[in-house]
Amino acid sequence: MLMVQGGDPTLFFEWNVTYGTIAPLGVPVKGILINGQFPGPNLNSTTNNNIVVNVFNNLDEPFLVTWDGVQHRKNSWQDGVLGTNCPIPPGKNYTYKFQVKDQIGSYMYYPVTAMHKAVGGFGGLRVNSRLLIPVPYADPADDYTLLVGDFFNKGHTSLKKILDSGRNLGRCDGVHLNGKVAKGDGKDEPLFTMEAGKTYKYRICNTGIKTSLNVRFQGHTMKLVEMEGSHTMQNDYDSLDVHVGQCFSVLVTANQEPRDYYVVASTRFTRREVTATGIIRYKNGKGAASSELPPPPVGWAWSLNQFRTFRWNLTSNAARPNPQGSYKYGSINITRTIKLANTAQRVDGKLRYALNGASYVEPTTPLKLAEYYGVADKVFKYDTIPDEPPSDNTKVTLAPIVLNMTHRNFVEIIFENPETAIQSYHLSGYSFFAVGMDIGKWSPEKRMNYNLLDAVSRHTIQVFPNSWSAILLTFDNCGMWNLRSEIWDRHYLGQQLYASVISPNRSLKDEYNLPEGVLTCGIVQGMPRPPPFSS
């Protein structure tokens, strides 16, 4: 439903979250459906739309959904993570209200509670450009969402028990494309249809739990046009590595003989490669898809080199009618450098994942509520981890981790990965410039090789084994923001933290008041609401 009141249009959605049987790999699993759908419905919006989503939790356990990549300017109240929001209790509902302010692009939503994400509750979220703002490519014949991900047949309850007992999840059972896998028996329904001679947009997101995937279209190339909210230089690719939590938009032209073709997704950096396919059907085409699939790339050096080909399109407009490249991030002085190193450790015999010697533990009171109600000291301490890894990074403390960020500081964050497993990190509330990535350890002279001109502005970044990645951003969005591993077993077992950005003015110009109807829990439940900001 759409409503316009003098300003930006408001879109209304009502979501019923239920259990239901799903079987993406052919094995029945208790899944999580939104309005009866797995994956959930596409949330389709346009720049500056106000979005109202009333979520009814019909599960028998708490549930909470986050909007991965939506920046929620001045409004971390609606981010939908456990550091900002109480989960929706069973049988209750919560209405999210947020604006996709000054954003365009391809995103996703998914649950952050327990291991729910492993069995559904996720879907595509798109923010279209306003009609008045030119897009750097012709309108496609259609706009498709392709959600790819690894899948575990054990179900979310068993996966949670494995992690709670301190064990490793192991490898996935398979891969799905929009919740399905083609059998290749000639009876598969197509995921998408194309008409010869026309060009189509595919928004490809990795909604999985832990596995990087390579995506390719049999017989067709992909022209990369957008990545997590930024228009990119339009290079052609035979295949793209899509790491967990990442979204790419590509154009595919139907320029081959009219018949069926496979879209292929296969696991990367796993001992045993798993491949899944879906059918793309030409209208009026004749003939089944060839069983000869395009081969995947080998090794992660290939993937690192692909990352280096991604460039920001400096001349195209993004959400506003001015070129993306008018923001000269490369000439701003860095005021703080934070280096985060991930480790896998055993604490009391159980597996935990840590950053700089601390493994995050979820308090019963959301951090943002504790801060707003003036009881933060009863829930967490600020700055409990150093800005660089301790010399002995084998000791692990279990506690909430909150970094106190100075409003409007320009910060460099380096992710160092001393492990043999690939990492993928996401920062809520922001996009950042992914300026550098290389093997080995980071040192200050590595800045000489940063891309300070046209690095893509995005919200998720991978870190290869025994490598580092560097990002730059201005912490100008007040709120409590989650920096997390998108690899969900790591996230669940502590590889995350929060950045608190407080307005020195306590002003509505910088941050919205606590919304009416917000759920309260923990020690703030029943406390009187603090006085609101007045101006």
TrEMBL record:
Family: Belongs to the multicopper oxidase family.
Sample GO molecular function, one term: oxidoreductase activity
Domain Plastocyanin-like: 16-130, 142-284, 365-505
Species of origin: Gossypium mustelinum
A Pfam family this chain is assigned to: Cu-oxidase_3
Protein name: L-ascorbate oxidase
Classification via InterPro entries: Cu-oxidase-like_N, Cu-oxidase_2nd, Cu-oxidase_C, Cu-oxidase_fam, Cupredoxin
Phylogenetic classification of the source organism: Eukaryota, Viridiplantae, Streptophyta, Embryophyta, Tracheophyta
Keyword annotations of the record: Glycoprotein
Coiled coil feature spans: none
